[in-house]
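Exercise (ungraded).
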Amino acid sequence: MNGFVKIATTDKLTPGKMITVKINNVEVVVGNNNGNYFAMEEICSHEGGPLHEGYFENSFVVCPWHAAKYDVKTGKADASTPWGKKQKIFQVKIEGNDILVKV
Ligand code: FES
């Protein structure tokens, strides 16, 4: 399947939810930000916070530890939280009800 791995179904990842999965030994947070699915490195580049335990602020994931904000599309930290570095972003695709991620 071109490296894509099924990680969940869309009914399990409703808007506002995030889960963490391990793909090829990489911890990934997969979330639904207002209907837009995204996948990003789970471990915060600041001091290792678990991003899936954070929350959304508009199109940003906010780290639960020191509130670095990461854009769900680019993985870049918002200028207002410069202690966050860039998080890797992974490809997501939806096939029927399946959510697939490529790491
Ligand atoms: S560990 Fe994420 S902001 Fe500090």
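Further reading is listed at the end of the chapter. For now, observe: The first strand starts at residue 4 and ends at 9. DSSP finds no helices and nine strands in the chain.
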